[in-house]
Write a structure and sequence with these properties.
There is one protein chain. The protein contains ten helices and 16 strands. By secondary structure, the chain is an alpha/beta fold. It has two domains: 198 residues, Quinone Oxidoreductase, Chain A, domain 1 (Alpha-Beta Complex), CATH 3.90.180; 135 residues, 3-Layer(aba) Sandwich (Rossmann fold). 48% of the residues are buried. The longest helix is centred in the C-terminal third of the chain and has 12 residues.
Amino acid sequence: MRAVQYRTIGSEPEVVDVPTPEPGPGQIRLRVSAAGLCHSDSFVMGLPEEQYGYGLPLTLGHEGAGVVDALGDGVTGVEVGEPVAVYGPWGCGLCHACATGAENYCPHAAGLGIAPPGLGSPGALAEYMLVDDVRHLVPLGNLDPVATVSLTDAGLTPYHAIVSSLGALPAGSTAVVIGAGGLGHVGIQILRAITGATVIALDVSEQKLELAREVGAHRVLMSDASAAEEIRRLTGGVGAQAVFDFVGAPPTLETARQSVASNGVIQIVGIGGGLLPTGFFSTPMGASVRAPYWGTRSELMEVLDLARAGAIHVEVERYTLEEAPKAYRKLHNGTIRGRAVVVPED
């Protein structure tokens, strides 16, 4: 089968031929319908050799959707031919966090050698992929896999961050979204769907600010040194009750620090390399700073329900497997509108 692999440190991913995997006991093989590209892929491929720990060659793609193609021994609860989405943050399945569906916070996964698809295990950027357990599959029903696959991360990750901040976002509150790209433009829609907050979106790209307007942001601002002052002005000097930084770079974190209200919350979602000191004389009194990771299985179900209701969608650019390296270049250069999705059957 064809797959997109990262094979050499510092090089671009390659389209290669690899053996089609056979499911072992408890495993499920999917014929991949769609796979999403993510900035975290670029982050991983940008790591120097001494920091890289995901194995080589690595079949990329931690956003996956497909049709059940074959079942390993002992698999129940899913049928061949069923369309499913892949829940990506795989855990041990036995600890307290996993028992609540929060495998994204499993404390044992790394020690047991359990890694998400595309981030250690073979991912979805291939014609077929293996899923280690039926609990990591969520039924798609009649949702279009190409339009939906990115919600497994680009929807789930902002949803998880926003749901944990709901107490700060009643009617009359203000939420700031920094970065209106792949995750940010979905985050804006989620905020509009489940909170009463006024949404202010920031970006350095006029194109992405226009996308932010299209998906429901009440106000858009250029993400520059004057943004925090303007947010303070728009909120009568109070600041934003919640700031969601989907970039996570030092300048955006400084904007978040200056923009958040007392007793507000900053969610650092992006992995842009920035750090934010918190405490007296740094963040406002009572403000909290959190670095959420992915989301829970039940939250993924809720995200897909929002999509079924028409409350959220992902702007998608469609590519073939052979075009995946080109799509990664566009992603790295910041020229993707929304999310890039690879369709192996194209």
